């Protein structure tokens, strides 16, 4: 069953499919598959939580080691042999040997990176599904809507529910790319590839000072349009914008070269990764002029945020795994609405308590080698959710 409507540029239609309600054995089979997936997710959560604690402590120790060893350079314009192989700190303006070009659009800029961003005007399909039960069957109504938008990736219209009238080209005539300067320096020091990769604060390049590069290309704002009428684009039209990162020369329109702060190992006139005794690698770059203390504080804050994000991901994986493994109890009583709802609430509470306890226990084991006292404290905390859950269960009546 399909219904069609056209609301301006947005076209819509709906499709209703129906299938018989799955029997008990079929639901049980699906639950068994979910239990296996839950077991895998459950086991992976232990690995994620345990390795995350080791990584966090190793990174923290490496940062403390780096802070105790780093040497601020007196000058960035001369290379001292005394600092060979040592961890050094320096700050200064970026410089590159040659400007980056895009000859297709007559554009050049003295920067570390130049990104050409190409978008195509295409049809995009949206789905909105709702399920309901009717006459013993499960029915699913899916509403499909189509809109034209600028997209940087080719949208495959062959996968659309209704391709007729919504056909997209299979490829773009112009490709996106990022050009990177082969030689990037701060003063007399050459940055390693790893440090150059960290220069990623892209800004859009204004095209107001450029002319139209070709007869079939029109400039509008900060875009070049491959379109007969940029104000009323058609499917298949292109628009191109440019972004740059790490301005490395004084520009009359963009200002002076960007400054960066670097902490890395000095090897001749190169700045390369520094391997700490804790087993980590230090090669740090931040925009702006920062002191040694400010750099390491930012690194510690970044490590803390990453640690808590992975802890949350580990707990969520454990919760999902336990929920999938215990889903069979819900399936066994799902034809009794009241019992089903009570069991569902109980299973969720059980999953939360067990996931919290086991997560804390895993974290404490991860800390055991490095910080035994903290490990003991977290291990004791891991028992709290189980104790709280048990205390809320009413005691059995005396016989």
UniProtKB/TrEMBL annotation:
One of its GO terms (cellular component) is nuclear inner membrane. It is found in: Endomembrane system; Endoplasmic reticulum membrane; Nucleus envelope. It holds the Pfam family TMEM43. Its main location: membrane. It comes from the Eukaryota. GO terms for biological process: lipid metabolic process; nuclear membrane organization. Keywords: Endoplasmic reticulum, Membrane, Nucleus, Transmembrane, Transmembrane helix. The chain crosses the membrane at residues 31-50, 312-333, 345-367, 373-389. Signal peptide: none annotated. The keyword Protein transport does not apply. It is a multi-pass membrane protein. InterPro entries: TMEM43_fam. The keyword Ubl conjugation does not apply. Belongs to the TMEM43 family. This is TMM43 protein. It comes from Glareola pratincola.
